[in-house]
Amino acid sequence: MGKAFRFHTDVDTDQIIASQYLLFPTIDEMKKYTFESLDPEFAAKVKPGDYVVACENFGCGSSREQAPQVLKALGVKAVIAKSFARIFYRNAINIGLPVIVCKDLYDNISDQDEMELSMKDGIITANGQTFICTSLPAKMQQILDQGGLIASLNKEV
Prior knowledge:
- The protein is built from 7 helices and 7 strands; from the N terminus they run βαααβαβαββββαα.
- By secondary structure, the chain is of the alpha/beta class.
- It has a 7-stranded mixed β-sheet.
- The termini are far apart.
């Protein structure tokens, strides 16, 4: 079980991690500024195993890979949205952050609600309800289990 941190439609990568923080040399230094313009206390409130839940087009904007990296570094278990910007989706898989499409969750959950995700089954439970979401293909789940595409490729060599 984890808490849902709910965000709106069209959250862009600059809202996830603003460009001025990209000057820091490590993701660890950047992560405390995650979602600073939307929820200045997000990095202090989120705990490992919590979830980011968003409406549509999550991760639009520039292609900075630091956006999914800071979420993963904070321990976000998965980002669940009605839809994702393609580049954010690919970057998230590359670094090992699960991104799950679920059309009905956003409209039936509030910020800080408890929820649980079974990635294998493609099922989310929250507020006494069950939501069917996109289950990941076995190969994609394997990539995530190995820490992302780069880590997976390095293990195959």
